[in-house]
Specification:
The protein is built from seven helices and ten strands. The protein is α/β, with parallel strands linked by helices. It has two domains: 176 residues, 3-Layer(aba) Sandwich (Rossmann fold), CATH 3.40.50.300; 72 residues, no CATH class. The strands form two sheets. A six-stranded mixed sheet has the order 6-7-8-3-9-10, sandwiched between helices. The two termini are 33 Å apart.
């Protein structure tokens, strides 16, 4: 079924099972959710419930066993160049400079940019995330947070409609992680996209997203949705308001329920 009006992403009744050495492992069961154009949805849930599987289905890297995934009204059957992805491990190529790493998608995704325009585009993004002056450094010469900033630039350099973030800040220290949350807001203002964030950090989810979806235990379906009403520039201070505290408590309780139900089924 194609998306409803204004839905850029729609997952419709998707089920998926992996085959392992010990048998089959059902991870998703009749999962249905959507993300509005220019929306930002965070997906949370118990460990191993299939959150990353959702991102790979949206990106066209996996095909569902049942159900369908739609992007811009078209059924996803293979990888699409309108999708950019960033992961916990930045996976930057050590033999390329940071600038050349960021430019890599422009060598792969069809575009009409000249070599000079490609470089200018990459430099603009690096400036936006505070990496001006580091263009010719190698990845090993940068801190973890700086490498992740470069990874975000690489994911956005070809101006994708959809940005998928699979725990990109999970391996960073708390200070660096919070700094990158604010960087993400700047990127959204300057480089509009429809976002899907996979995270274990509930504070991260409510700071970055417009909506938080809690998946049930495996095989996962949507257990709970929380719409976030905050708008405009966000400050870390907002994480300590009574409203934020209440939202965090609700989400924590929902994940506890998901774990409890999964344990009862196993």
């Amino acid at each position: 079924m194609p998306e409803k009006k204004n839905d850029l992403i729609r997952i419709d009744g998707v089920s998926h099972t992996f085959t392992t050495d010990t048998g089959t492992l059902p991870v998703l069961e009749k999962l249905t959710l959507s993300v509005a154009e220019n929306g930002f949805t965070a997906i949370v849930g118990p460990s191993g419930c299939g959150k990353s599987t959702v991102t790979r289905l949206v990106a066209g890297l996996l095909k569902p066993d049942a159900g369908s995934v739609w992007l811009q009204g078209q059924k996803v059957t293979s990888p699409r160049d309108i999708v950019g992805m960033a992961f916990q491990n930045p996976v930057l190529l050590e033999w390329r400079s940071i600038l050349k790493n960021v430019m890599l998608p422009l060598e792969i995704v069809p575009n009409t940019l000249s070599p000079a325009d490609r470089e200018a585009r990459a430099r603009d993004l690096l400036k936006l995330v505070g990496l001006s002056g580091f263009e010719h450094k190698r990845p090993s010469e940068l801190s973890g947070g700086m490498r992740q900033r470069a990874s975000l630039c690489r994911a956005l350099v070809h101006r994708p409609e959809v940005l998928i973030l699979d725990e990109p800040f999970g391996a960073l220290d708390a200070f660096t992680r919070e700094d990158l949350w604010q960087t993400m807001h700047r990127l959204r203002e300057e480089e509009p996209f429809t976002g899907v964030l996979i995270t274990h950090d509930l504070r991260e989810a409510i700071f970055l997203a417009d909506e938080v979806i809690v998946l049930s235990g495996r095989p996962a379906t949507v257990q709970y949705r929380q719409t976030l009403t905050q708008s405009g520039p966000r400050s870390l201070d907002q994480l300590y308001t009574p409203e934020a505290t209440e939202t965090l408590n609700i989400l924590r309780e929902q994940i506890k329920l998901a774990r409890r139900d999964e344990e009862a089924r196993s």
